[in-house]
Amino acid sequence: MKRKISALFILSLISMLLLSACGGSGGQGNKKSDTVVIGVYGGDWEKHIKPSIEGFEKDTGLKVKVVSGTDSEWLTKLKASNGQNAPYDLLILQPDSIQRAQSAGLLQPIDQKKVPNIKDLYHSVQKRFTVDGKQYAAGFSMGQLGIAYRKDLVPQEPKRWTDLWNSSYQGHVAVSSPTYSAGLQFFAGLINAQGGLESNKKDVDKAFNSLADLKKNVTAYPDNPGSIQTLLERGDAWVVPFWDGRAYSLEDAGLDVGFAYPEEGAVAALASWAGLLQQFKMG
């Protein structure tokens, strides 16, 4: 049976991670600070995390500065800092970003004694973030990447990943580049849709060639959720690979958006908290 993670659990997990696994000091090196800097995705992510942050500040007396951004932006800054004086303490990252950051020695392993709730997370997920018996991230939000589309504009609703190449969508498809997590996940979905494997170079090359053929349909290459939302709202993009949660939020807000889980298979998406290398000192 799948375990449901409540809002209270998320608040508890965030609080413990902020207190014990905050990897930096708000960009202040080893100086003591009462401010924690966390990076989250913009839009609904930033809006919905606010109550948890306010609760943490009230309970601890610490201040939390929320910075919105994307994995590629954060990783670039982390690598530039080489793990020292990083501008963040805690980040929400996708699995591939966590792997790269951990391999580069930029993440702090989670102290499981100080974060006991981590044992309540999905073990199959946490296993992916475990290296030499140490866990480097806490997976807390799961969704799926599929196809978001404007129901009032598309001549026909998409059902498959390969529908994005349909000539009826020409000039109205938006696709993120692989440097953004949505684009990378779409690329994985495309390889699978073509019957290939990500580990097979020929299958990867075939998918890249298909992306080249898709250019005639593409209107934009958005690299963040805000850009995707704007493209959908303006009607510039009729179809775009996007996450189900994001699409349903747009629908709830009144936009005439539908969401399709492609017949070849949607792509699992996982967001996780990860703490950076430096030690956070409370003043």
UniProtKB/TrEMBL annotation:
Q: Name one GO molecular function term.
A: polyamine binding
**Cellular component aspect of the GO annotation:** outer membrane-bounded periplasmic space
Q: What Pfam families does this protein map onto?
A: SBP_bac_8 (PF13416)
What UniProt keywords are attached to this protein's entry?
A: Signal
Which biological process, per GO, is one annotated for this protein?
Answer: thiamine transport
**Would you indicate the residue range of the signal peptide?**
1-20
- InterPro entries in UniProt: SBP (IPR006059), Sperm_putr-bd (IPR001188)
Classify the source by domain of life: Bacteria
Q: Tell me what this protein is called.
A: Spermidine/putrescine ABC transporter substrate-binding protein
